[in-house]
Batch of 3 targets.
Target 1
Amino acid sequence: MKLDDFRLNLHGKEYVPIIIGGMGVNISTAELALEAARLGGIGHISDAEVHAIADKRFGTNFIERKREKYFASKDQRSKPEVQFNIDELAEAQGLHVSKTMEAKKGSGAIFMNCMEKLTMNNPLETLKTRLSAAMDAGIDGITLSAGLHLRSFELIKNHSRFFDTMFGIIVSSAKALNLFLIKAARVGRQPDYIVVEGPLAGGHLGFGINNWKEFNLKSITDEVLQFLKEHGLKIPVIPAGGIFTGTDAVEFLQSGSSGVQVATRFTVTKESGLPDFVKQKYFQALEEEVEVNTVSPTGYPMRMLKQSPVLQKSVKPNCEGLGYLLDSKGNCSYLGAYYDEIQKGISAANVFIKEKVCLCTGMQTFKCWTCGHYVYRLKDTTNKLIDGVYQLLTAEHVFQDYLFSEDHKIKLPEFELAFA
Ligand SMILES: Cc1cc2nc3c(=O)[nH]c(=O)nc-3n(C[C@H](O)[C@H](O)[C@H](O)COP(=O)(O)O)c2cc1C
């Protein structure tokens, strides 16, 4: 069987059962998401560091103005006053979503990936604004991620599009799902889909640093399917993490899942937001170069390539302009670690912190190379050209390969002579 033999039913509509997962900061670009929608599937944009995305996409200058406004705090280790302007946040989010939705063609959908861990020095109000502004701007669906989202529905329950926008939650266990469902029931709203993310995914992981290897996607997905059955709930389940071939996907759909969420194979497409030289690093990656570490200030383990520039050199914190990981008191574990070093008398140019990285800067500048476990298999999905460069793929090619491949085969693209 092929993945194309299945369809995903969500909110009374049929989709091709491929969801391209959200990849911040602007790795899952509007262009990538729009391709998924055009082909009948579902693509995600991400609102991680949305001001920076708006500045890049639309020439606004949100980040620069914020940096100037809070310049005086640049040497403080705690930054309670460095706040996001709520109207500007809504404006940036509105631009990002509405311009994407206006460009949408085809029968698929565009979703927004919304990470709770972006606490932005004002967790509840900023989250409410991000969700509301995305709904105002016409987003088809919102995937709640990187956090349990126990208060998220409560924040937006009075929004006029609360019941008409599709909502999904990413969980890594039936236990986390149960907590979310209890809260969701209080506002009379179930999620429309559940993404079950296993330990081989890219980005942050919902497992402990010492036990992630003990889990596998198949058994967590089965556990979630069983949980839903026992509770008489019919919510589509979408596994994610390490689904590398169409056949991998078919195996999940044959055992009760409704679609799959995939990301790593799309990081090396022309539409992905990674710079081309970083796409080549992903193609070149070896299995032994992939690590799960604890350098993210969010406290979640994260998978990345060991050669990521953020792991080689520390940068001065940049919370005046960015500050997406500041907690409700204006602190971040990277900030603390950085200023501990400065107080020891180490000069800014020589500070090197192994334990934490400035993720806001690292992700914005594409210097944190987060990836799924199977990044090292990407080289087998394309042609190596005579100058040693790997040929970039189109999102359409990868999408169709997932849909039509059989027996775990991966179709290589037509040689692109222009590269040679
Ligand atoms: C480069 C990259 C960045 C990611 N960023 C995010 C993110 O910002 N938020 C999120 O919820 N998941 C993120 N993910 C996870 C994906 O959305 C997806 O669920 C997962 O990677 C699927 O597994 P696969 O990469 O093995 O296909 C990221 C994954 C990758 C590869």
Note: Residues 269 and 393 are 5 Å apart (CA to CA).
Target 2
Amino acid sequence: MDQVHPKRQNGTVEIKTTGPDSEQLTEEQWQAIINNDSDYNNQFFYAVKSTGIFCKPSCKSRVPRKENVLIFFTAQHAISAHFRPCKRCRPTGQRLPDQEWVSAITEYIDKHYDKKLTLSILAEACHGSPYHLHRTFKKITGITPVAYIQQTRMDRARLYLANARDPVTDIALFVGIPNISYFITLFKKETGLTPTEYRQLERSKTTRRCLFDGSRE
Ligand SMILES: [Zn+2]
């Protein structure tokens, strides 16, 4: 259970910018932060004033501006200074329950399906090994993460084809599949139709619905 309740005033986290608990950032610590050096993980934590969040040195989140960094030797000190533990690197040591982790993974896919997305990219972004991510995802959702990525892309492609006028090559790009022939093959495997056939079918359905009663399903 998360028992941390940072004090909020008018929606902003009240943060001590200096205090007896935070330490001066050394060049060695700064290098550890820049290089996500896990060797330093039990030696210190760094908090970022602009975000109100604190991390382990190994955290792969975006490198903060140096002047915003505060150093703490214990997680408890960072919490006392009203910083929240980062959800990615879990500096307080709690592991995400599988369910929560899988929601974070699906959320990541839903936001990044239009970019290059492989199992290892996903594992890197969501902080787990590719093997563990694949297994956990499948256990919770019943499908593999790669299948979920493809399903998301095909769902979006169907939506675009039915509602947008962009050429099929552009739609393939919008859903993160720059290789057009691969896109067509995948789409046909999924729907039994080529993207162009699918688009024509959807258009004729819409026309028919409009002719009947002017309403949409
Ligand atoms: Zn972090």
Note: The chain has a mean pLDDT of 86.
Target 3
Amino acid sequence: MAPRIGLKSLEKRRTLIDGVRSNLHVLAIGVKYFVNPRRMTLVYPKEYPRLSEGYRGFIILEKKKCISCAACARICPSAAMKMIRVMEPDPKHPEKPRMKQYPVINYQRCIFCGYCVDVCPTEALYHVNYHDVVYDNLAEMFWDLDTFQKEPEYKTALEGRPVRIMVHEELGLIKVPVGEGG
Ligand code: SF4
Ligand code: SF4
């Protein structure tokens, strides 16, 4: 008489077969990409993405355009932007200094949402199209009024090769080298 296989052993056998099948599938994917690598990984900083104009990177203040309305600081969802008071010469009465308010930014808190840039009524704030700036310590991430008016030095990937990330119909995301002006 043939031995009877219980339900529990059948279940165990099925689980084992499923496990082996899944592992073989994963191994097959690994072999496929080993033989024909279509990687999207950027070898940073030897390669770096050339970001488009309009990318929401670091934010810069054009102080002469600022009317001190504080809309940028009020709308900031992460309390990264705040207004500070500054005494400066009044163009109409140079002998009398006047008090003005300008925004400053704390990049420890900024989430690059761009609300402050969008809400500014005079376009006194703008984005630059990069965001990989290296800081030596957290204090450097707080920009005072002077720092906020200068575009940050693009310190990383200077020696690297710029690439653009594109969508290919068959391959999906691919990287394409671009010239310095591209
Ligand atoms: S980009 Fe967003 S988070 Fe950053 S300072 Fe502007 S409003 Fe605040
Ligand atoms: S929203 Fe624009 S104009 Fe108003 S305080 Fe901010 S930077 Fe200045």
Note: The two ends are 78 Å apart (CA to CA).
